[in-house]
What we know:
The protein has 136 residues and is mainly alpha-helical. Among the domains are: 35 residues; 55 residues, Methane Monooxygenase Hydroxylase, Chain G, domain 1 (Up-down Bundle), CATH 1.20.58. It is 64% helix and 3% strand. The protein is built from three helices and two strands; from the N terminus they run H-E-E-H-H. The protein has a two-stranded antiparallel ribbon with strand order 1-2. The termini are far apart.
Amino acid sequence: MNITTAHSTAFWPLLIxxxxxxxMVTVMLGLSYVLGQRHRGKATDEPYExxxxxxxxxxxxxxxxxxxxxxxxxxxxLETIFIxxxxxxxxxxxxTGYVEILIFIGILIAVLVYLWRLGxxxxxxxxxxxxxxxxx
Length: 136
């Protein structure tokens, strides 16, 4: 058996898989078109979410704190991925890895305390003036 024959026989299962997938998708779309319901109701072309017809405009202003919380979530979520990777390789890393993860977690705690003291996590500061009094 030469190299060309070996390579061509290796691709047959892949080609059969793609052909079967294409046939299955075509059959499913064709059957749904033939057997599907055709109706034109009053609200057929209107967008809705969760079965509730939408009201208002899609251009709603969100407070910047929503974005701050989302950024904090992404940052701390990525840090948990690093901690999980450390937990998987903890035996290979030994005491050096243990000290490094302690430093990493210490930095995380320091950043969290900094954000907390800065007031970035406090949602009750809205509507307050410079001296902490409620604005009218």
